[in-house]
Amino acid sequence: MLSLALPGTSWAHRLPVGLKFGALAAAMLGLTWLTAPLPLAAALAATAGLYLSLGRRAVAEGARALRPVLWIVAFIAAWQVWEGVPMLGLVLGLRICTMVALANFVTLVTPLPDLIALIERLARPLARFGLSPRLPALAIALVLRFIPVLRGRMELLALSWRARSRRRPGPRLIAPLALSLLDDSDHLADALRARGGLAPRPATPPQGRD
Amino acid sequence: MERNFTLVVLFAALIAVLGLVPPIPLASGVPVSAQSLGVMLAGAVLGPMRGALAVLVVEIIVALGLPVLAGGRGGLGVFAGPTVGFLIGWLPAAFVTGLIVEKLHGLHVGIAAGLGAALGGIVVLYACGTLGLMAVLGKGPLEALMLSLPFVPGDLIKAAIAGWLTATIARYRPGALLSRPR
């Protein structure tokens, strides 16, 4: 499973994660205030400039990530024109495209390890509730580990179905997939327990007297 | 504790993997993805809290920029787009599905799960999705609801499949049905 982040060490990659997310939140708030097309077009141009500063690959990835939104935006714009308020359609289209492109930009320039570190930092208060602060990061790592496993098993189930039947398997293969997943869950729980379980470790090793 | 944790994690992985199944077009031409079936199933099997937690793990992974949503979508941009209500709505959808299965414990588990999936995965989910569309597009509730209506038939089919799958799991792994503790 590959992250959508671009490999590289551009100026944007080197910014601290907290700053990137803070700036994104501020930009989102600012964009909801703008209601005139001209400032919104300027914001979109500035966002395009951000992508351009990273080179051709970033522009291509940004365009690819924007494509599913463009369909909806085109539909909305057409609707507004039909209702006789084309200006509103333009404002909505510009605002949605800018917001989505900006958010995708942060995703493109923030490597996964940085994000996991951010999550571990945010999860620190969990220790107060008797939970390990490593829990969220462990959950994410395990999900990413099991996605290819489950995907491979689904392909195997489809193959053995096709070897026995001419009909399409449809959703019925989800049943054996879910059952096998429940067995995995038991094994995984045993493995976790054997390695000390999920209780938080003491912050400092117990001090012995000598 | 460990077992609850691994069940949540593995159902999150299941939701992600169901996003990889190519969408099947209905007679009307509207594509139906299997991903929200995973959300219904997580609620029906794991119960309200753990089902919603499994969805939360998926949404965190989406926010981290991994392309686990149907059609290879992911990243923070999804949370800024017009369909954000449907993504956030998965949380109450799984919760309500699990709650119905838990509360209607007198009812056959498959029927309860199908009912729960229809209420959580359609009524609650579409309410959240419509609120999201209204917020992003500045539309009235009726117009926003109209945008999502073509997807209702596919979701009704998914609710029925979720009921059948939950009954199958209850038959073969009754201990794993956390929504119906015995």
UniProtKB/TrEMBL annotation, chain A:
Asked if the Swiss-Prot or TrEMBL record annotates the protein with the keyword Ribosomal protein, the reply is no
Q: Coiled-coil segments, which residues?
A: none
Stored InterPro entries: ABC/ECF_trnsptr_transmembrane (IPR003339)
Q: Where are the transmembrane segments?
A: 24-53, 65-82, 88-110, 131-150
Q: For this UniProt entry, what is the primary localization, expressed as one broad class?
A: membrane
**Keyword annotations:** Membrane, Transmembrane, Transmembrane helix
On whether Ligase is a keyword of this UniProt record, the answer is: no
Highest taxon above the source species: Bacteria
Q: Where in the cell is it found?
A: Membrane
- List the GO cellular component terms: plasma membrane
Membrane topology of the entry: Multi-pass membrane protein
**Similarity annotation:** Belongs to the CbiQ family.
Descriptive protein name:
Energy-coupling factor transporter transmembrane protein EcfT
Specify the species.
Paenirhodobacter ferrireducens
Classification from the root reads:
Bacteria, Pseudomonadati, Pseudomonadota, Alphaproteobacteria, Rhodobacterales
From TrEMBL, chain B:
GO CC annotations?
Answer: plasma membrane
Q: What is this protein called?
A: Biotin transporter
Q: Which keywords are on file for this protein?
A: Cell membrane, Membrane, Transmembrane, Transmembrane helix, Transport
> Where does this protein reside within or beyond the cell?
Cell membrane
Q: Which residues cross the membrane?
A: 53-71, 78-101, 107-137
Membrane topology summary: Multi-pass membrane protein
Protein family per UniProt: Belongs to the BioY family.
The primary location reported for this protein is membrane
- Which GO molecular function annotation, any one, does this entry have? biotin transmembrane transporter activity
Its domain of life reads Bacteria
Instruction: State the organism's lineage.
Output: Bacteria, Pseudomonadati, Pseudomonadota, Alphaproteobacteria, Rhodobacterales
